[in-house]
Amino acid sequence: TLFTSNDLRHNYLINLLSKFCDELCVIQESKTLFTGKKDENYKVSNTVEEYFKKVNEAQNKIFEEKFVNKNTTNIKSLPILYGELNKLSLPYLNEFLKSNIYIVFGSSYIKGKLLKFLVEHKAINIHAGLSPYYRGTDCNFWALYDGNPHLVGATIHLLSQGLDSGPLLYHAMSNLKTNPFEYTMSTVKSAF
Question: I need a surface site. Which of 31, 78, 108, 148 has the fewest CB within 10 A?
Answer without folding.
Answer: 148
